[in-house]
Amino acid sequence: MSADLDLTAAEWSKSSYSDANGGQCVEFSRTFAQTHGTVPVRDSKSPHGPALILSAQGWSSFVSAVIRGEFPVA
């Protein structure tokens, strides 16, 4: 994946599990999945910080694992 990916036009969505108090929030961009085949993921508390760039298949596998409860919360 390109390190030069321009994310300024990304439309970010918050996780449906994010709370309204600005807690631990994850944002992702569906628009990049549709146009680039990649899914940028970032911390909503640091919108100008780094983003992880995942393949669409990698993101789908991660979300499926979360739904199945494969990442227990401590």
Structure description:
- The protein is α+β, with helices and mostly antiparallel strands and 74 residues long.
- It has a domain at 24-67.
- It has two helices and four strands, in the order ββαββα.
- It has helices spanning 30-36, 56-67; strands at 12-14, 26-29, 38-43, 52-55.
- A four-stranded antiparallel sheet has the order 1-2-3-4.
- A hairpin with an 8-residue loop joins strand 3 and strand 4.
- The radius of gyration is 13 Å and the shape is globular.
- 11% of the residues are buried.
- It holds the Pfam family DUF397.
- Residues 10-66 form the DUF397 domain.
- InterPro entries: DUF397.
- This is DUF397 domain-containing protein.
Widest sheet: strand ordering: 1-2-3-4
Largest sheet: 4 strands, antiparallel
**How many strands appear in the DSSP assignment?**
4
Number of helices: 2
Order of helices and strands: EEHEEH
Strand content: 15-25%
Q: What is the rounded distance between the termini? A: 32 Å
Cα shape: globular
Radius of gyration, CA atoms, in whole angstroms: 13 Å
Mean pLDDT: 83
Question: What structural category arises from helix and sheet content?
Answer: alpha+beta
- Helix % is 25-40%
